[in-house]
Amino acid sequence: MEKSPHLHRFHITTFGCQMNLADTSTLVSILTDSGFRRVPDEKDADLIILNTCSVRDKAEQRVIGRLGELRRYKQARPEVRLAVVGCMAQRLGEKLVELAPHVDIVLGTDRLFELPQVLARSNGSAAIMTAFGQQEIDDFSPVKETDYSAFVTISRGCDNYCSYCIVPFVRGRERAHSSDHVVDSVKRLVDEGVVEITLLGQNVNSYRHGDTDFPRLLRRVAQETEIPRVRFMTSHPKDLSDELIEVMAAEPRVMPHVHLPLQSGCDRILEKMGRGYTLAHYRSIVDKLRQYLSYVSLTTDLIVGFPSETQEEFQQTLDAVEEIQFDAAFMFRYSVRPGTAAARLSDDVDEAEKIRRLSLLIKLQQKIGSQRNQREVGRIRRSLVEGVSRRSDEYQRARTEGNKTVLFEAANLSPGSVAPIRISSADAFTLHGELVESS
Ligand code: SAH
Ligand code: SF4
Ligand code: F3S
After folding, report:
1. Is residue 165 within 8 Å of residue 278, measured between CB atoms?
2. So what's the pLDDT on residue 7?
């Protein structure tokens, strides 16, 4: 591939979800193959890349803040190239350059992997590329996230159009990687030493390529590769099938964790969100998961203050959270996204009330998360060692089968090893345990 003569060192910051982390890893490998070198400090870079997120206004404000700082930086070092890629680049396109004229390159979610070519021919004026459908999806392969783990994107885009959500607009129509591409990628990653993969899609349950649906794909990955641990996200309740639960029950290498966003506990709000299920349906999936799997950890996403949500309807979300007992939840205040269907509704729950609802919800979930974690005490969980604890190197950090963080007394285990840990205590976010010595 052509090399740009002056740009050698790049720095990349990733905002947003795992999909963006996966894209960043692929982009890093493409740039490295084209002769660029990643540097840990932005100040050493002559190419600065921001891989951006648009999902909530706050996510975009963070990027705008970074761009403001980089404006001054570029005044001092005008030779530095600045590329904004990903979801916000897709959403704003040219407007981004009007907003921040020091941006040199804007590449949307389907174009970011063309960065080396764009750099090679850049002629001083801003390059903006956001058209979809220019690339063969299977031309791009997943790469390691760490020495022992990888995200494997199985589909890009989303066709669900939940009324509040910008993702279908910035990620485009749902396109599936072929199942052979996924299976071959996992085999290659295993050869490179990866022990855990996470299959990624905005809605993995709607995956379809030819005759292969998601349960089939998951079974193929578990049976045709040697990967020790397989995870997947995100699951959409409207498409989660009994077959998926059967595959989870039958394949021990599929980790017992389901991230299943509920969003609201109120059927009227779910309907307005365009989610395509009721609380009763959601409950029935949870019942089946807990009935057929000997152990499953369940996490969710919730939004408070969707347009017209009343106090009683918010209470239904609290009641649902109390009843269902999630292991953990990501909880958000509703944020208007321009161009979405919900943006036409009046954003009539005021900010103070949203904040009040969110803090009540967080408080409840913390209590429940802590209780769920208490139930782990005494159990032995095969856990993937990630490194030392962030707080103290006297402890190592690992991830249980249910995707919970566990700290245990440092035993010099190398990251990527899988060890049995007996859980001894727990709080709302972290488990503590000890290594079970194998005899
Ligand atoms: N594809 C995934 C999640 C995508 S975005 C899914 O369908 O579950 C991640 C989470 O952000 C969503 O689950 C939702 O809870 C939240 N979110 C998305 N749009 C939002 C908005 N406009 N305001 C607040 N939260 C939002
Ligand atoms: Fe957004 Fe809904 Fe698609 Fe998830 S399923 S990415 S919430 S539109
Ligand atoms: Fe992910 Fe944010 Fe884009 S959540 S898909 S990076 S809008």
Report:
1. no
2. 66
Distance 144 CA to ligand 3 centre (A): 20
As a whole number, the mean pLDDT across the chain is 95
Q: pLDDT tens digits, residue range 117-159?
A: 999 887 777 899 999 987 888 988 999 999 999 999 999 999 9
CATH number listed for the domain at residues 258-375: 3.30.750.200
Mean pLDDT of 49-55: 98
What ligand 1 atom has the least distance to the C-alpha of 162? 7
Please choose from 12, 21, 54 the residue to mutate so as to test ligand 3's pocket, defined by most ligand atoms within 8 A of CB.
54
Pocket of ligand 2 (CB under 6 A): 158, 160-162, 165, 167-168, 202-203, 236
Rg (CA), the chain: 22
Per this entry, what is the length of the chain? 439
Q: What is the mean pLDDT of residues 301-316?
A: 98
Q: How many CB atoms sit inside 10 A of residue 123's CB?
A: 5
Number of helices and strands in the chain (H, E): 13, 21
Residue 392: the pLDDT is 85
Residue of 13, 14, 15, 19 best suited for mutating to test ligand 3, as the one with most atoms within 8 Å of CB: 19
DSSP state of 311: H
Give the distance (Å) from ligand 1 centre to CA of residue 227: 30
Distance CA 398, CA 405 (A): 6
Decide whether any atom of ligand 3 lies within 6 Å of the 54 Cβ. yes
pLDDT tens-digit profile of 184-220? 999 999 999 999 999 999 999 999 999 999 999 999 9
Q: Which ligand is nearest to the CA of 53?
A: 3
Ligand nearest to the CA of 20: 3
Domain pair 141-255 / 258-375, same fold: yes
CATH for the 141-255 domain, from 3.30.750.210, 3.30.160.250, 1.20.1070.10, 3.30.70.3090? 3.30.750.210
Query: Taking the domain 9-129, which CATH number applies?
Result: 3.40.50.12160
**Nearest-angstrom CA–CA distance, 165 and 162:** 6
What mean pLDDT is predicted for residues 289-300?
A: 97
- pTM value? 0.95
Closest protein CA for atom 2 of ligand 3: 53
pLDDT tier at 439 (50, 70, 90 boundaries)? Answer: low
Q: Are 118 and 105 in contact (CB under 8 A)?
A: yes
CATH topology for the 380-435 domain: OB fold (Dihydrolipoamide Acetyltransferase, E2P) (2.40.50)
